[in-house]
Automatic annotation (TrEMBL):
PANTHER family recorded: WD REPEAT PROTEIN, WD REPEAT-CONTAINING PROTEIN 6
Subunit structure: Interacts with FTSJ1; the interaction is direct, and required for 2'-O-methylation of position 34 in substrate tRNAs. Interacts with IRS4. Interacts with STK11/LKB1.
Native organism: Pavo cristatus
Membership in a protein family: Belongs to the WD repeat WDR6 family.
Matching SMART domains: WD40
Cellular compartments annotated: Cytoplasm
Major site of localization recorded for this protein: cytoplasm
A GO BP annotation: tRNA methylation
Protein's UniProt name: tRNA (34-2'-O)-methyltransferase regulator WDR6
Main function: Together with methyltransferase FTSJ1, methylates the 2'-O-ribose of nucleotides at position 34 of the tRNA anticodon loop of substrate tRNAs. Required for the correct positioning of the substrate tRNA for methylation. Required to suppress amino acid starvation-induced autophagy. Enhances the STK11/LKB1-induced cell growth suppression activity.
Gene Ontology CC annotations of this record: cytoplasm
Sorted UniProt keywords: Cytoplasm, Repeat, tRNA processing, WD repeat
Length: 302
């Protein structure tokens, strides 16, 4: 039996009804939409007043917002925000880096309609006393910003690698795919060491699809899977010289919105199940063999 319980909700203009002389003010954009959400994993409960869950939201008004869900109190509070992008933010993805001495750094990746991808350190924002301190004015300045595409970023995925490195893959409205190798290091200031991010390698594949790339996943360090509104699912071999197309199959779901994958073992063979959603659902199986990769449809529903 599955039970769904309403825990909390939040309105950006919830303070509006309590304001005096509000007829003299301009109300916040009533058409603001949440374009993407990401859960911040691995938060340290010892530094927080009570068990809680942090969420990051990409917003159409150009803001990246950090919320905290207090399950016991059934409250959803706005903790911090930033309007760094100055345009609609399409995607956010939170990820965690742990130093050798178990010190954790919570990092955030956000992508906007101009093709830029920004990387943030949100560790400090997660350690505040959320019950007594007021809203932080901003998340601060991004550690790094990359112009990955010529227009909006509609898909984003981050895969952790050893030695503090991450693969960041993204797909765009212009049909291009961008993959970069990100390294997390400590700052040079010994008194107050910060977090530094460096791009070690990057590769761009323009015109990889004939339409918006709305789904992308890094399956392993040398394999990337992408899906597009053109109804093609393509498997790529990743090297820092190029993205080589290994296999392509057509799927039956129109207006693709998202792609997700999970790894399974079948008879000692490495493979992944891939689910595509849009105007319907379709499940496909991706098998990685020694010499080639194969995509097979497992069924569709509309």
């Amino acid at each position: 039996i599955c039970q769904v319980t309403h825990m909390a909700s939040h309105r950006l203009d919830e303070h509006w009804d309590r304001m005096k002389n509000r007829h003299k003010l301009v109300k916040m954009d009533p058409e603001t939409r949440y374009m993407s959400l990401s859960v911040v994993c691995g938060t340290n409960s010892e530094q927080l007043p009570m068990p809680c869950t942090f969420l990051v939201a990409a917003c159409s008004d150009g803001s990246v917002r950090l919320f905290v869900l207090l399950e016991a109190a059934q409250k959803l509070l706005l903790v911090a925000e930033s309007f760094h992008h100055q345009r609609c933010v399409l995607k956010v993805e939170a990820f965690l880096h742990t130093w050798a001495e178990e010190e954790r750094k919570h990092l955030l990746c956000s992508a906007a309609t101009d093709g830029s991808i920004a990387f943030w350190d949100i560790t400090t924002a997660l350690c505040i006393d959320i019950l007594t301190k007021p809203l932080l004015p901003a998340l601060g300045t991004p550690l790094l910003t990359v112009m990955a595409h010529s227009c909006g970023v509609n898909s984003l995925h981050i895969q952790e690698l050893p030695k503090g490195r991450f693969l960041v893959a993204s797909g765009s409205d212009d049909g291009s795919i961008h993959v970069c190798l990100l390294e997390v290091t400590r700052g040079s200031d010994e008194a107050k060491p910060g977090t530094c991010l460096h791009i070690l390698e990057r590769v761009v594949r323009p015109c990889s699809h004939a339409a918006h790339v709305t789904g992308i996943r890094v399956l392993r360090p040398d394999l990337v899977l992408s899906a597009s509104v053109d109804q093609r699912l393509t498997l790529w071999r990743l090297s820092w010289d190029s993205l080589e197309e290994l296999s392509t199959t057509f799927f039956h779901v129109p207006d693709l919105a998202e792609l997700d994958c999970w790894e399974v073992e079948a008879g000692g063979e490495q493979c992944w199940y891939c689910v595509l959603c849009g105007q319907g659902l379709e499940l496909l199986r991706c098998a990685a063999l020694d010499t080639h990769c194969k995509l097979q449809s497992q069924g569709a529903a509309q």
